[in-house]
Structure formats: C-alpha cells, structure tokens
Amino acid sequence: MNFDFSEEQKMLVQSLERSLAKSYTFEDYRSQIADKVSHVPENWNQLAELGVMAMPLPEAAGGFDGNNVDVMAVCTELGRRLVTEPYVSSAVVSAYIVEATSTVSEELLPQIATGEVQIAAGFYEPGERHDALASNTKATEAGGIWKLSGRKCVVMGADSADKLIVSADAGGPSLFLVDPKANGVSLRSYQLLDGRGAADIILEGAEGTLLGEAGGAADIIEAAVDRGAAALTADTLGAMQESSTLTQEYLRTRTQFGRPIGSFQVLAHRMVDLLVELEQVKSIAMEAAVEARNEDAETRKKSVSAAKAKVGAASRTFGQECIQMHGGIGMTDEYALGAYVKRMIVNETVYGDTDYHLNRFADL
Amino acid sequence: MNFDFSEEQKMLVQSLERSLAKSYTFEDYRSQIADKVSHVPENWNQLAELGVMAMPLPEAAGGFDGNNVDVMAVCTELGRRLVTEPYVSSAVVSAYIVEATSTVSEELLPQIATGEVQIAAGFYEPGERHDALASNTKATEAGGIWKLSGRKCVVMGADSADKLIVSADAGGPSLFLVDPKANGVSLRSYQLLDGRGAADIILEGAEGTLLGEAGGAADIIEAAVDRGAAALTADTLGAMQESSTLTQEYLRTRTQFGRPIGSFQVLAHRMVDLLVELEQVKSIAMEAAVEARNEDAETRKKSVSAAKAKVGAASRTFGQECIQMHGGIGMTDEYALGAYVKRMIVNETVYGDTDYHLNRFADL
Amino acid sequence: MELQLTTEQTAFRDEVRSFLKEKLPDDIRDASKGAGHLTAEMFTRWHGILAEKGWSVPLWPEKHGGTGWSPVEYAIFDEECHSFGAPKVLPFSVSMLGPVLIAFGNDHLKEKFLPGIIDGSDWWCQGFSEPGSGSDLASLKTSAVREGDHYIVNGQKTWTTLGQHADWIFCLVRTDTNAPKPQMGISFILMPMDLPGIEVRPIITLDGSHEVNEVFFDNVKVPAEYLVGEENKGWTYAKFLLQNERIGIAGIGGSKEQLYGLKRLAAAEKKNGKPLIEDQNFKTKLAEVEIELRALDITNKRMLVETERGMDPGPVSSMLKIRGSEVAQRLYELKMEASGLYALPFQPELETEGWNDEMIGSLENAISAPRYLNTRKISIFGGSNEIQRGIISKMVLGF
Amino acid sequence: MELQLTTEQTAFRDEVRSFLKEKLPDDIRDASKGAGHLTAEMFTRWHGILAEKGWSVPLWPEKHGGTGWSPVEYAIFDEECHSFGAPKVLPFSVSMLGPVLIAFGNDHLKEKFLPGIIDGSDWWCQGFSEPGSGSDLASLKTSAVREGDHYIVNGQKTWTTLGQHADWIFCLVRTDTNAPKPQMGISFILMPMDLPGIEVRPIITLDGSHEVNEVFFDNVKVPAEYLVGEENKGWTYAKFLLQNERIGIAGIGGSKEQLYGLKRLAAAEKKNGKPLIEDQNFKTKLAEVEIELRALDITNKRMLVETERGMDPGPVSSMLKIRGSEVAQRLYELKMEASGLYALPFQPELETEGWNDEMIGSLENAISAPRYLNTRKISIFGGSNEIQRGIISKMVLGF
C-alpha cells in the first residue's frame, strides 16, 4: 500500500502550480468571467506545453502513458486554481473514447496530446437526467453516411471544441464524431455557474463519423463517463482544500467580540468536522483514481460511484458550511470562496450526480 | 386557532400528575422492571379511577366522550412518567375497534371504561414489517364458528390482557375477539426494552368472535392504528420533554474544567437545536391529536404519518444527543434518561415506524 | 385545541384574497413568481396600492395608520400575499424605521417621515453593519462628531440591501468613543442619500446579483435634527428595532410557495423515464421537508397566538428564524437538485428587464442554482443562526 | 499510489488466516460472532493461545515479546481477527499498561508484571475516571498519601471496564494537592484488587449489561514499590498511555463485520413482501454508510502507512476515532431499524451462559437494540468526540 503521488506526479503538480501561479491568478479568473470567457487559447496551450494533456495518453500516440492517478494529480490542481479550460472533457473523456474506439485514434490522439485539437463529448439529454445511456438522439445510415438528429445538453467544453463526440442510438448506444461547423449542427453556448464553458448541441440531420461499432458503445460510454467522474472528484478535492484553507485562515484572523471567531467553540468544532470530511473525500477520491481504469467494470463502477456520491454530498455540505462560517463575506462574488462553491456544484452535477451514483452503488 | 388544552384537560393532567407523583416514582418504575413486572393492577385501577380510560369513550358507554386531544394530554403525561400500563392498547386502540365494529360494544365498552377489562389488539406479523393490513393469519368459518391460525407479533399489553383482538384474513382483513385462555391460543410474553409488556400471540385453530363484517375491517384497522400512532407521538413528546429537562439540568450543574458544561458553546448550541426540535415535535403531535379522528381518511393519514415520522426521527436523534451530552452518566441504567430513550425507541417502532410513515406520507 | 381558522379569520382571509385578486398587477405577480428580481418601480407601485387600501403599515398603531390587525391576521395576510405572488413590502421603512420613529422620534421627525413611509414614496435603507462589525454589531466604528447644528459622519457601512435605490438611510453611528461600554456611545441618525460625501458601491453576491451595497461616508454633514431620540441611546433603539422582526420571521408563506414550486418542478422532471416526483429517494426527501414545514407552520401559529395574547414568546422567534431558514434553504437545494444538468448554465440575463431570448432549460431550472446560492444569506443576515442559538441559550440555559 | 496489499502483506495475511482457522476455538468464535458477551474465561483462554503463538503483545518492542509487526501488519491482523470472530485482546494490560511499564517502569516492575500481561494470567483494569472527573481527567481527587513504605489510598474510580474480573488495577491518584497545576500532583500506581478496603460495585448500563464498575478505595494500604516511575509524574505517563491507542482506533474490522451482518439481516427481513435490502430507502441508507466505511478504511490505512514511516499522523487519530464511532453507531442503528418490531422484546437471558430457550425473533433482532444502546458509549468513553474535536481544533486552528 502506498498513498503518495510518485516523484513524477509531484513534479508535474509543482510545475503546474508554478505555471498557474504566474499566469492565472484569482484576479485573472475573475476578469475572464467578467468578460464571459471560458476558454483562453494561451492558457490552453500552456497546459499542453506542461504535458498534462499528453500525460494520460498512450506513448504510441505521443502521450506519456499516464494512469488515472496522474489525472487526479492534475485535476486536483486545476480545481484548486479554478482553471476553466476544458481539460477533463477533452484530454480525459474524449481522448479515452478516441483511443477505445480506435477509428480515428491515429489521427486525433497525437493532436489531443499536443492540445492542437480540443474535443468535447456529449452523452446526456434533456429529460433523461443523469443516465448517459438513455438516448433519444437517432443515428441513421444511408449510403455509408450517418446522419444524426437530437439534442445533447450541458456538454462541457462544447462551446470551444474543435470536434464533438456525441452518443446516439443506432440500434443501441453508438458514438459519433461530429464537426461543430457542419451543416445540421448548432450550438447554444453558455458559461456554467463557475465560469467553465458548455453548450447544448442540437443535431438536425448532421453528418457524423461512426466511432467503433454501431450499437456497441455502451461499455465505452460508461467507462468514459467513469473516468470523467473520477477526474471531477479530484477537481472537487482541490476546490475543497482551497475552501478549507480560506475558511481556516478566516477563522484565525477575523475577530468579533474581541477575539478570533475560530476561538468560538462552535465554529472550531464545525471546522473540525469539515476537516474530517476532507480526509474522507481525499481517501475515496484516491480510490476512484486508482480504480477508474480497472478492467473489471464492476470494481470500477463501485469505486467511482462511491467516490462521486461521497464527494458530491460532502462538497455540498462543505460549501454551505464554509459560507456560513465566513458570514457575509462568504456571500460576495469577489471573494474566492463563492467560486469554489460553484465549481463544486458543477462537479457534483456532471457525469452523474450524487443521487445517481448512490443508486448505482447500491444496485451493484 | 387555539393551541391550549381546555380547562378540563388541564385538570385531568393535573390530577394524573399528582396521583402519579405519589404512587409511581422513578424508583417504583425501576423496582417494577427489576421484578420483570409490566402491569400492576393497583396502578391500572388508579388510572381507571382518574377517569382516563373512560375519557376517550362515548358517553353512552359510560365514557366522557373525549376526543383525541384528551388522549394526547393523558399520553404525554404517561410518557413523562414512564407508566408501563397498557393504556394505549386497551383504552385507545382496542376501545375504538370495539366501538367501531359495535358487535360487542354494549358489553365491553363500559368494562373498558372502568378498567375492569383490559384488551390488547394485534395486527402485525413476523415478516410483514409495519404493514398492519398484511395478514397471514387465516380465519375460517364452520357451523357459525370462526377458527383462527397464525401469529401476531409484539402485541403491546397482550401479556396482561383479559381479551385479545386480532386481525385475520377472512376474504379480506377482518377482526376477531379472542379469549387468551381459550384452546389454541398461546402467548409468548415478555417485557419490551422500556419495561412495557407485550406478547406474541400464537393461534392454532383458536376460536374467535367476528367483530363487524368479515373481510371489511381494513378501514377500521387503519383508523385504529392511526389513533394508536397519534397517542404514541404524545407519549414520546412527554418522554422528550423530560429528557430535555434532565439534560438542561445536567448542563447547568455538571462542572468540568472548572465551569458548568452547559457554558461550553458546543453543548449549549446543541441543546438549542434539541429545543427547536422539541417545539416542532410538539406542533406536529398536536396536529396528529386534532386530526386522528378526522372522518376524512386522507387528512387523518397525512397528519398522523407526518407526526409519527417526524416524532420518530426527532426522538431518535434527541435520545442520542441527550446521552452524548450527559456523557457516562447517560449510559447508566439507574439514571432516568436511559429509560426515556428506550421508551422513545419503542414508541417509534410500534404502529408503523418512521420509514413506514414517511413512505405513507409521501404516497398520499 | 383547534387548528382551523375561526369564522372571523376565514372571513378576513377571503377579504385579503378578493383584494389581491383585484388589485395585484399581473406584471408584478409574474415577476415575483417567476424570473424576477422585482424592479424598484414594482416595489414602489405595489406599496402605493397597499397604501391606498390602508394596508401598507398594518402592524403600526392605528392612530399612525395601522390596521389594528392581530398578529394572526397579519400572518394570514402575509401568507396570502405569497400565495398570490404579491411582493413583500420592504421591511426597512415599514417594519424597522417606522416603529422606532413612532416610539422614540420627536413630532418633527414623525411628521416629516411617517407619511413617506406609509405611501412608499421614500425608499429607505439600513446602515447598521460594517466590515469589521458583523455579528458583533456594537463594535461599529462609523463616527458622527457634533459640530454646531450638524454631525460630521465618517466611516463605512456594508450589506446595505437595495441601497442603490434609496432616498434615505438610517444609521447607527458612534457619537462617544469614550463610553464605558461600546453599546453606550452609539446614536441613531437619518440621512438623505444625496448628501455630499456619501458614496454607494455595489456588492455583487456569489449568485451574480446586486442586492447589497457598501456605503461610504466622507465628512458627510448631517443636520442634527435628523438624530432620532437622544444622543448615545441608539443601541436601545436598535435593539427595539431588531425585536420587531418577529412576525413573519419563519418565512412560512414563502416556503409554502417554494414547496408547491418544487412539486411542480419534480413532476415535470424525469428520472429513469418516470416523473422525478415518483422516485422513492426524491419523494422521501420531499416528504421530510414538507413535514418539517408543516410542523413549523404550527409552531409559528402557536407563537402568533401567544403574542396576540400579550405573552412574551421568549426564544421562539429565534427558533423560528433558525428552522425557517433551514427549511427554506433545503427547498432551494432540492430545486437545484431536481433541475439536474440544467441547473448549471448561468443565465443572469434572464433576470434583466425586457429579456426575451431562448433560455436553456425551464425557467425554474435556470434560476435554481442562483437562488440556492442567494438563499445561503438567510442564515447569515439579520443575526446569523449562530447568534440566534446564542440568544436562545442565554435565555434558556443562562449561558 | 497503490491500494492493494503488497506480496509480503498478502503472505502475512494468509499466515494470520491459517493460524485463526486452526487455533480459534469454535465456542469462542460463536460467542463473539453471535449472542455473546464473551466470558472472562474465553478472553483469558484466547489470550493464552495468542501468547503461545507469540502474538499476544504484537506492538511491544521485540525484546519484550513484541512481534516486530508494522502498523499495517497489525491492522491486517486486527481485521482478520474480526472477520474470523476472534475476540479483541483486552487493551488494559496489553495496549495501556504494558507500554507504560516498558517505558517508565523500573526493572522490578517489569519483571513482576510483564510476564502476566504477555500470557494473560493477570487480568488488569483501569482506574482513571472519577465521578467528578470525566472529560476533565486532571481534576481527579482519589488521594494517595505516603506513609512509610506504603501509600494510603482513598477515593473512588468509575467506568472501570470489566473490573469485576480483575486481579490488578492501575490507577491515577493525587499525591500532591498543593501542586501549582492539577496535572502536576498526579501519580500512577498499581494495586492488587484483593487489598483490604477495595470494593467493586457494578454499574448496569442502559442496555442491561454489566461491563463497567465503580471501584471504591477506603484507606487502602498499597506498597510503595507499586508506584510506576516518579511520584507526581503520573500525568505524563497517562498522556503517553492515551496516545498508544492510535492503531485500531477507527474500528474498521469491527465495522466491516457489522456491515456484513447488516446486509445478511436486511436480506432476511422483509418490506412490502420483498427483502428489505431491495427497498430503495433502505438501500440508500446502507450505501451511504458503506461508502463512508470504505473511505474510512482508506483514511485509516493512510494513517498507518504514515505511522510506519515514522511520521507523526497528527490529528488523524482523533479524526479516526470520531468518524469511526459515527460509522459504527450508524451500523448498529440500522440493524435496530432493520429488525422492526422484533428489536423491541428485551431478552437479556439470551446473553447468559447456557441459555437455550426459544427466542423471540432472530438472534440479530434480539440483540439489535441492546447493542445499539451499548454502542452509544463509543463516542463517550476514552475521550468523547467533543474532546477529540477539541484536540484537533487545538492542533489545527490553534484554539
């Protein structure tokens, strides 16, 4: 047993940390949000240069053959720094699909690794809640050409993606690569609560390239979502760690009634309960990171669902408590806590919410 | 709107209070438990003399024509004083069945009112959880005589009852009066956690008198159970009030680290949360008392289930918190708190537990 | 014991209903039930309509314009207003300042200010909290130094709700820095917001909305006639003011509306192909909060009836604030949860007047997360739940 | 990062399993998995079996009889013992007194007492808490006055677990009432339980069981040779002792067993005609606690690995005690809930040896409520969860 990041992972995190500390402060984040910008090409390229996009990919595709613990290391840092770039949707979820379906992997994987191509993958649909396999998007083939019709909702990174992957029903769950600029594709783009970008993808007879087998993508979709979910638990871990630091600092320095508010036993003990939660979240996020690529689907699902459910529920309470312990200042937009709370909400809701994963865990 | 007991109700409670203070102290309760006694005829007769058994019954039957708020007033006091006599099972639940089915009401109601006859009513069965209508007890008729076979579990008061009422399937839910001494009836009697008495009733071809219509007792069973459930919420209210008093007193007087432990903010605020819960419990128990006889079954069920679910959940936490705030002393048998906690557990579990009533409320 | 309204109360409720049905403008109702942060104009217009009916300051003494309603009648009125979608009259003038002026103001102040409060023509805001004085209000530092027939005010207030629309502000200021206790050097003073040296800066809250403000005072020259009551007695008036918030503190009417809204939403949303409201897990969460609200409704009415009888309800109003905020917050949380992925798109433009574009998800979805975030304030502002627990503990346990 | 056992650890686990399979007596296993309060004889017998194998004091220094296991190995051993139904070796002698004697006792005491601890022939109990000194242990009042080569001990101890079986007691006593701080006047002393003037009185806990006792000292004459270390340094030894409880504090092995038991029970119980374990509400509660335990298992292992590396795990052991007790209590609570009405009959006779009558409900039903009640103690005894939170807060926040 060993619960540490490797030396390589630590170095990666350090270089990421150093790089973000210089180029991406909370004020940068704020002004980006104010300008309604989610994706900044220089920031994206900077991440690519650090190698974090290549990291999870196989060596053959120009990647570093990283595992999901590497992804955890990166995502914790991205959550900690409120990075809005669509790292998970492109380098984790879409990259896995491209790799697993292998149809276009030779061409695209190296481009994902360098950050040259950004891909977003959409599974969820209006009215189907958190079920990634339930699809009303239809794919029909005529003369070797697949046409897609339907709507994908809240696809993270789709607003800035160069390519889209969508799931559709072609006699069973199937995956298609779609050009966002093609005929029959329209995007309703927006920012999410926390400033990350997303879009609804509306397909009206849009042409798509079948990835892998028609009707045979269920396992790949589930595995892709699980990698995304595991990555987001790490992202939330980072956001929780920063929220904890802010709150502890505030408890130590804010005085009321002539003493630091952290010296009030009620607040001190509530902070302790949050610290206990944080250790639990760290533990279960670690398990998800280690197991997110487990070839045994049940083991993978059980670990990922345990983590997503626990981290989701814990982060909700965590956010509420951190705001409450701050009082008024915690309600303001210019204080970083709110941004972390919103990031946690987004992370809780994407790739299956707490309720979804609790149910899945219970049913496994 | 008016949330007070009437003058008559207040007087009834006062005389009950005075009478119990003299004849039934916590030490009396303790020594009764030590002797494995649940029912003491003198205590039972004393309650009868105070008129609390006659109270809920119609005037024509020698009763005082009381309503369920009267029952609430009495039961709160019984809970507060840890009275082990089977008041609810006889004077509330069984009396209602006798009255509503009217088969034997002329003979039995006056005897219930005077306490001369004590009746216990059994609905629940092993393996059927908290569903009072699910019955594997079969009733068959031959030559005008009904014979019953089956098992009723944890029937409060059955250990000391003069007559038993049991539900059984006779082409639908039906009710029968059974003599506990008759052939084919055997009782496995025991004390419950809190010293009240109960028994499993085992019927092997036992003779029973049909009460009301064969197959048509579903509504009466549900209404009877709801009256019992409402009465037990009042009983728990009394137990919670006493637990609260004990805990507040302890917080004020127990010193550690040179100061009363109640001056530690964490304990003070937790006590406050219990007091808020207590007000909520009082409110919802009042609603159940007022609506427990509502002729509109849906209104009745909604109110009773709301109360039973809320009071059940609140009392569980309440008991845990009171013990925790006491520390070691709260774990001892000779301190009254434990007895209240056990009474609350029994009240939570009988006539539908928290989960059952939460589900019923949600489904109405 | 009787939980139903009396005949008189029922008649009163019907009267309120007819009034609301007839007089509540559709645009105001739509804004308050739907997307709306209500506009300042809507608040003022509705205030005027109530004033015409004589219902804008119901709890004031009758000789000053009150209706003579009992607390229970007021609660009925409040609940019906919520149910019909009528905005709550802003509390700053009617519930906070008015009673203080009536109790402690001289005739000059009463004559000058009560009419504008009653008809809603003056918009008042509150200047109590300061950056360094949140829960510990008495540590406030904004100073007012008497010079001739003026006070010179310097300092900063914060969390001033809707101060951006205000004509006037009532403030707590420090007039004696040498008083033996901080509470003893505080005065209660009124200022027009257009005095030179007053600057209002918006505070944007984490949901993206602009409700609260910072107010800066830089050598503001305030006529001494605007002092309320006696100098250095302001703490007494402030305590009186804070106690007047008791009725309606549990937010029952609002939470009932939220509950109905939540049920509508959960009926429209789907889980595993069925309406979310039929899902066992969701149903259970819904039942829990609905039962809690049911109990709170009765707890609240019990308190009102006691107040009506002239009994001091003791710590109950703090209890109602605690549990009322918990219930409301839980309802907003469940709305966000029920909205699923469509809770996430941030669409603040929805809330701007005249916006008429295509929205992502339903309106309820779109506002669910911002409302959830915004509602975190209700356990903080106006005396945090921790402060309320302290009040109760002091009263009950003596610690 | 690697969550699996290493090859060496797996081999070690298999060795433990073989040992348990071969050596654990059936009657002891049945008693500890089933109805049983284990009897004193069973504890002693099992202790002896472990001692024969050389495994009775695994964490002691090897030269005193320890196994040289790492903390992780010890945790593996502990979990396997739970899983096989082997009783936990009572901590009073092995985990509490032993390390104190090794660290602070003179050779005479070590020679006299360590062998009886190792082979289990001496039953030790603990005399720390007093009626007036629970969380505030340093305020203890039991006095020991030196007279020649004896101490005269007067006072009372309480919550003395299994003191009714004990041959010896180790006590904190006050030897200097004038010390500048209460912590500075305390000594650590040993006494045979059969000295004249010692009386043990049972405390029955609310579940009806007899585990704890009061111990009274009336002019008990204790040979001075039984003083451990220096006079008035007892507080230092006590703090050392309390820190030794770290490994196993989360109760992972026990909770895993309880979880399996709960699942078996919920599969056997019915709701609406289906196994309770298929009920959505119950399933959800079960999943929540199972996930919590899963996380705790990893948190615990993280701490063990850090301890193994010689790092100070800091506040983690207090965290493990808090969350570990919460998880265990929740599991017992769900067992009671799952048992339904059959949780209610009180059948203490079940727990007496040789009882063989018909029981009401299943054994799991019958013991569910008493166990639930009994388990409330684990967040109180050995430093309540409030005390643990205080320790963490002090370490982390500095308050």
Fold and architecture overview:
The complex is a heterotetramer, with 2 copies of chain A (364 residues) and 2 copies of chain C (399 residues). Chain A has helices at 7-23, 26-34, 41-50, 68-80, 87-101, 105-114, 218-253, 265-291, 297-326, 336-349, 354-363; strands at residues 119-122, 138-142, 145-156, 163-169, 173-178, 185-191, 197-211, 255-256, 259-260. Chain A is α+β, with helices and mostly antiparallel strands. Chain A folds into 3 domains: 7-117, Butyryl-Coa Dehydrogenase, subunit A, domain 1 (Orthogonal Bundle), CATH 1.10.540.10; 120-217, Butyryl-CoA Dehydrogenase, subunit A, domain 2 (Beta Barrel); 219-363, Up-down Bundle (Butyryl-CoA Dehydrogenase, subunit A, domain 3). In chain A, strand 8 and strand 9 (259-260) form a beta hairpin. Chain A starts with 6 loop residues before the first helix and ends with a helix. In chain A, 62% of the residues are buried. Chain C is an alpha+beta fold and 399 residues long. Chain C folds into 3 domains: 7-89, no CATH class; 124-232, Butyryl-CoA Dehydrogenase, subunit A, domain 2; 250-397, Butyryl-CoA Dehydrogenase, subunit A, domain 3, CATH 1.20.140. Chain C has 12 helices and 10 strands. Chain C has helices at residues 7-23, 26-33, 40-53, 71-84, 91-104, 107-118, 234-243, 252-268, 280-308, 316-339, 363-374, 385-396; strands spanning 124-127, 143-147, 150-157, 168-174, 186-192, 198-204, 210-223, 227-228, 270-271, 274-275. In chain C, strands 1-4-5-8 form a 4-stranded mixed β-sheet. A 4-stranded antiparallel β-sheet of chain C has the order 2-3-7-6, with no helix packed on it. A two-stranded antiparallel sheet of chain C has the order 9-10. The two termini of chain C are 34 Å apart. Chains A and C meet through strand 6, helix 9, helix 10 and helix 11 of A and strand 9, helix 10, helix 11 and helix 12 of C.
